[in-house]
Recover the amino acids of this structure.
């Protein structure tokens, strides 16, 4: 792996955009066929090797994935800033091998997004497009913790309630 | 720098210390609106609402644009800056993830090649 760490990723940039009021989109091209890229998402042992970047201080504590249409997943990650592990869980709405995975993010409750990732192979390269569709603009704004101002709004409302009491 | 930040925070606090103005921000978080829409919604005069919008605008919390005779209000540049910063931070997370996935794809590709050769041999 030491040699791999020095590989140049410059050519294949990751892009991320707010596509609409309630959708985020992440894209990246990989130098390999779709069946290999898909395998790295669908096999839990392989998935664990890339999903939680060490440079972000994240570690995967547990990972259960029943990856088929209707199957469920549960992922627990740790971060030095949080004592409790962070749990992510949901259900696979659709799994089409080498093509597409769609899952819910039930840890977000009613405001949880639906994630769709598609794999499209062209000339031995695979284009990965990941979309996170939130149920409403507010749900996405909240997820983005846009943040300091709406935080203020809540604090002031609490203060008002306190003063009125 | 610290002073500048403090001054900006003071303006924000002043802007947010009023329940109507907080309501206006929440409303604009849902959708853009004209000053007269907002005046109606919050049961006040156009002049009163203009004053509130002026204070929010000074704090960078609201931006306004006049088209014809209508002045439309939306969330301000502060909010946009927050959004851009959030997206950049999350893009960095995905980029880091995908760099690791890129390494793994390369490894699996090599492995498939080697296994293929073994099978043929």
């Amino acid at each position: 792996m030491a040699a791999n760490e020095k590989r140049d990723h410059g050519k294949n940039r990751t892009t991320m955009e707010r596509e609409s009021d309630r959708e985020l989109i992440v894209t990246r091209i990989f130098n390999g066929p779709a069946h290999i890229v898909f395998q790295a998402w669908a096999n839990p042992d392989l998935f664990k090797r890339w999903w939680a970047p060490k440079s972000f201080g994240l570690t995967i504590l547990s990972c259960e994935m029943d990856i088929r249409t209707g199957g469920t997943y549960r992922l627990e990650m740790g971060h030095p800033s949080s004592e409790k592990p962070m749990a992510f869980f949901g259900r696979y709405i659709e799994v089409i091998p080498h093509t597409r995975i769609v899952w819910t993010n039930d840890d977000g409750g009613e405001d949880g997004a639906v994630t769709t990732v598609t794999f499209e192979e062209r000339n031995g390269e695979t284009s990965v497009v990941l979309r996170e569709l939130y149920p409403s603009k507010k749900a996405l704004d909240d997820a983005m913790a846009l943040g300091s101002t709406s935080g203020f709004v809540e604090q002031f409302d609490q203060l008002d309630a306190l003063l009125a009491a | 720098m610290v002073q500048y930040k403090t001054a900006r925070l003071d303006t924000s606090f002043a802007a947010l210390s009023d329940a109507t103005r907080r309501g206006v921000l929440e409303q604009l978080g849902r959708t853009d609106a004209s000053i007269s829409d907002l005046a109606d919604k919050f049961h006040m005069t156009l002049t009163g609402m203009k004053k509130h919008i002026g204070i929010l605008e000074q704090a960078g919390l609201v931006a306004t644009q006049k088209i014809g005779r209508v002045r439309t209000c939306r969330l301000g540049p502060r909010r946009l800056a927050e959004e851009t910063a959030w997206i950049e931070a999350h893009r960095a997370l995905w980029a880091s993830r995908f760099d690791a996935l890129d390494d793994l794809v390369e490894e699996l590709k090599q492995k498939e090649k080697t296994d293929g050769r073994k099978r043929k041999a």
Remarks:
- Chain A touches chain B through 48 residues (CB under 8 Å).
- Residues 1-5, 147-151 of chain A have pLDDT under 50 and may be disordered.
- The domain at 2-139 of chain A is CATH 3.30.530.20 (Alpha-D-Glucose-1,6-Bisphosphate; Chain A, domain 4).
